[in-house]
From TrEMBL:
This is Gnk2-homologous domain-containing protein. It is found in: Secreted. Residues 8-110, 116-222 form the Gnk2-homologous domain. The keyword Lipid biosynthesis does not apply. Belongs to the cysteine-rich repeat secretory protein family. The keyword Repeat applies. GO terms for cellular component: extracellular region. Pfam families: Stress-antifung. InterPro entries: CRR_secretory_protein (IPR050581), GNK2 (IPR002902), GNK2_sf (IPR038408).
Length: 226
């Protein structure tokens, strides 16, 4: 019998240099916040919460990839809420990304804002045989998904297209956190697509993930509905 492991290791994490004292009200609020988000996110794939007041106030948000089931979302968020305490021990702000979800918290209010600061990208080291064609098709696919995602209630869109005469396909996705406005979702996705062009041009697969958006393309089906 095979066991599917949803969350093994995080893709990336970023922690603030600012720290809170051990056993402080902020630490208590953080632990409570992560417990709340672990329950709040899975049924809808997204959730946010605020706890505390003044210097002890903490803001948290989590998002699961739009094609992920509630069960797998729950497993990912549960793992993320544990891991972020390990990798960001004592930090007043942190964010952690997995393939199926991401989770973040901060003493600063960040809801409804595009976050370009917490961002990373990964790419396949292999280049396409025709890098110009792949670049053009990647933009065609993801630019279309940017429009679709920003117009959907879920802020999530997927798609595929044939990109050469050999019937090779390109698969893609675009997603925003649903606390953004429609225009900010589109703006952030367009910026992420431009980042892909600068960091990963001609690669046969790549992704950019930020604190409020995500875009990805591959030459193989990587989504549950693909």
């Amino acid at each position: 019998m095979l066991t599917v492991v949803i969350c093994v290791n995080p893709l990336e994490s970023i922690c603030s240099d600012l720290e809170y004292p051990p056993h402080s009200p902020y630490e208590k609020n953080l632990n409570n916040l992560l417990n709340i988000l672990s329950t709040k996110i899975p049924p809808y794939g997204f959730g946010l919460s605020i706890l505390g007041n003044g210097v002890d106030q903490i803001n948290g948000l989590g998002l699961c990839r739009g094609d992920v089931s509630s069960k797998d979302c729950s497993a990912c968020v549960s793992e993320a809420s544990k891991k972020i305490l390990d990798v960001c021990t004592g930090s007043k702000a942190g964010i952690i990304w997995y393939d199926h979800c991401f989770l973040r918290y901060s003493h600063e209010y960040f809801f409804g804002k595009i976050d370009y600061q917490e961002e990373f990208f990964t790419y396949n080291p292999v280049f396409a045989s025709n890098t110009k064609l792949l670049e053009d098709k990647m933009k065609e696919l993801l630019n279309g998904l940017s429009v679709q995602a920003s117009q959907k209630r879920t802020f999530f869109a997927t798609g595929e297209l044939v990109y050469d005469d050999s019937s090779h396909k390109l698969y893609g996705m675009a997603q925003c956190t649903i606390d953004l406005s429609t225009s900010d979702c589109k703006t952030s996705l367009d910026a992420a697509i431009k980042k892909l062009s600068s960091c990963c041009s001609g690669r046969i697969g790549a992704r950019v993930k930020g604190g409020s958006y995500s875009v990805r393309y591959e030459m193989y089906p990587f989504l549950n509905n693909a």
